[in-house]
Amino acid sequence: MSVMTKTAPRRTKPRVADSVFAFAIGCVATAVGVGLGLPHLMKVGADLAGVAGLGCLVAGLLLLGAGGVALVRLVPGWWRVLAVPALLAIVLVTVMALGQAVAATNVPDTSVGSRTPGSHGLEFTEVEFATADGVSLSGWYIPSANRAAVALLHGAGSTRSDVLDQAVVLARHGYGVLLFDARGHGRSAGRAMDFGWYGDQDLSAAVTYLQSRPDVEDARIGALGLSMGGEEAIGAAAADARIRAVVGEGATNRTTADRAWLSHEYGWRGTAQEGVEWLTYKATTLLTKADEPIALRAAVAAIAPRPVLLIAAGAKPDEAYADLYIQAGSPGTVQLWVVPGAAHTAGLRTDPGQWEQRVTAFFDTALG
């Protein structure tokens, strides 16, 4: 009589491919959740995009946990000590690069708010004009008293109301001012893109509108932009000679080439950051119909001999580094003012007297 013995079932290790797949999908889902869910939830609440993004984030973290643990278990011996930081580094780079790309191409709705030029005692008109690709943009126009005008561009995730203080200064010196919402922001139609890659088309349409005004001379039009708006103004002026002068405050980067100074200033850390930026912009090209624009350093060279004034935040050293790199594209035509102690785009608030004197003197000279 034979004796049947039972053996314990062998514990099978998870397949490498399954673990890698779960970890990879977890990285992507987490990045999408961070880039989509968090901005929407913080800015507009539990809308569809915010809830979907939160769902992606939760699912991504679960997959990261399951896939990451499985991968670490597959690593033999003391090599596991190296596997954990390696996997964490992959997660960090993916979230930083893809998360930024998703956030820049899936922008929450922005409200214009209740303030208008009229709140400052200024006469103004509600205006609308269309871009070459058929997008309707909305703005305010303050009439010119000196036959010159400035298109005023706001930063990412904001609207025309966020540049009202700058408009008041320009209007006080007689300039016509066109404050308009970038596409997808405020009351403008279209899909928002917070790297400013639609800036050429939007600003070109604004200049065409200004040229249609009887109070503005065609050859006396400038542009002033903050942050993303400054980058848009510089890039658009490179392709549109009708823009006779540009002021860009807080304008630093919107392409990989704009970050080439990082390795020079910060060594290996800068080189690593350049790599993350490269991944960010490459991912962005897959998520938007907009073409990647000209680098800012190349743009100022194309703008010459027309003048450019860059304004950098003294409290943000990287802004000065970035602007010095941009200025090197055309040192003879690009001025740089670093505002001591100023935060990003806070030059007017930090030193209103100097800001008014420098900016208006620049436009007075450039626009006659």
Characteristics:
single chain; 368 residues; Rossmann fold; 2 domains; 11 helices; 8 strands; 49% helix
Please state roughly what percent of the residues sit in beta strands, choosing from under 5%, 5-15%, 15-25%, 25-35%, 35-45% or over 45%: 5-15%
- By CATH, the topology of the largest domain is Rossmann fold
Which structural class do you get from the secondary structure elements? Answer: alpha/beta
Sheet of most strands: 8 strands, mixed
As a percent range, the share of helical residues equals: 40-55%
For this structure, what is the CATH class of the largest domain? Alpha Beta
For the secondary structure, the number of strands is 8
* Distance separating the two termini: 112 Å
| CATH architecture label of the largest domain | 3-Layer(aba) Sandwich
> Stretches where pLDDT falls below 50 for ≥5 residues?
none
Organism: Kribbella pratensis
Domain Serine aminopeptidase S33: 146-254
Keywords: Aminopeptidase, Hydrolase, Membrane, Protease, Transmembrane, Transmembrane helix
Protein name: Serine aminopeptidase S33 family
